[in-house]
């Protein structure tokens, strides 16, 4: 799902992908839930029989800790939990449009797009997986590129429709550059970017780990990040959205799901070693690499998420501001009313769990 009029580069789409899956340097190599030995951290609710189709991504979120430890399956033993992996938030939004998922991870840019024309999807934001900082960055191969202003006449790769894409567009606009005119953008999935880099087909990329680390190992230098665009008034997030109808019909499931996510956030803060091992299993990297990535995000407990700064108020404004920017880039047909974005942010589950 493209969100700008940038032109793709012919030939890059057919480049040979660089294999990124690495050895997981951990005390274990599979989920502890794999043998059916997972335990619920609280009293299980056997009354829940919901069938839930969950969309996950290989990103360092609490979702991977929940999945690896089989928390949902242990706490709702009679529910039917179906996990499906997706490559990007844009893909997840498409799945919601096709009614093939009930709840899943998207960035704030795809979330804003889902709530805007022409999609106008009936979804709500119920959780902030993390606030994105330096974990998503612009990495350049040429030492003369020291920031967005130096990208004129350069070719930059980014996954279209992602939070990284939104951050890149806002950075270019802030530098007075026109995406697709002054700077050539190409739409590449993260795992396709290293091959384009090795083939000298791109000058820079705005992406996240593990690809970000791969490019740095290949000689690239970070020159700007989503922390910088946030300071400029364009913050980005990884969010959980769920179909409004699913939320309405399955309040007990949503309650348990939120408890599981809050448990995972506590694990990240209080037991980062165990948290890193769980995330490493899903991402196919070492726990040490995960530990380095966690510093690039801000992880919020349920009690914090329910506050006015986040789900309780400001996030709706942030989504509306994101939509306005997307409209300026031709990414959406129209911005919805402010009430649409405000009403689509549901602080209820986090508020209930955070009490």
Largest sheet features: 6 strands, mixed
Oligomer state equals single chain
CATH superfamily of the largest domain: Periplasmic binding protein-like II
General form: globular
CATH class of the largest domain: Alpha Beta
Determine the CATH topology of the largest domain.
D-Maltodextrin-Binding Protein, domain 2
Q: Strand order of the main beta sheet, please?
A: 2-1-3-10-4-11
Helix and strand sequence: EHHEHEHEEEHEHEHEHEHHHHEHHHH
Helix content: 25-40%
Taking Cα atoms only, what radius of gyration do you get, to the nearest Å?
20 Å
Count all strands and give the number.
Answer: 11
Helix-strand category: alpha/beta
Description:
With 355 residues, this protein is of the alpha/beta class. The protein folds into two domains: 12-18 and 134-231, 3-Layer(aba) Sandwich (D-Maltodextrin-Binding Protein, domain 2); 48-131 and 236-354, Periplasmic binding protein-like II (D-Maltodextrin-Binding Protein, domain 2), CATH 3.40.190.10. The chain contains 16 helices and eleven strands. The strands form two sheets. The protein has a six-stranded mixed beta sheet, sandwiched between helices. Helix 5 links the parallel strand 6 (155-158) and strand 7 (184-187). Helix 1 (62-68) packs across helix 11. The chain starts with 50 loop residues before the first strand and ends with a helix. The model is unreliable at 1-28 (pLDDT under 50).
Helix-strand blueprint:
Blueprint: E1 51-56, H1 62-68, H2 71-75, E2 80-85, H3 89-97, E3 103-107, H4 108-114, E4 123-132, E5 136-140, E6 155-158, H5 163-174, E7 184-187, H6 193-198, E8 204-208, H7 211-217, E9 221-225, H8 226-231, E10 237-243, H9 244-249, H10 251-270, H11 272-283, H12 287-294, E11 297-298, H13 302-305, H14 314-328, H15 338-343, H16 348-354
Parallel strand pairs: 1-2, 1-3, 6-7, 6-8
Antiparallel strand pairs: 3-10, 4-10, 4-11, 5-8, 5-9
Helix pairs in contact: 1-10, 1-11, 4-14, 10-11, 10-16, 11-12
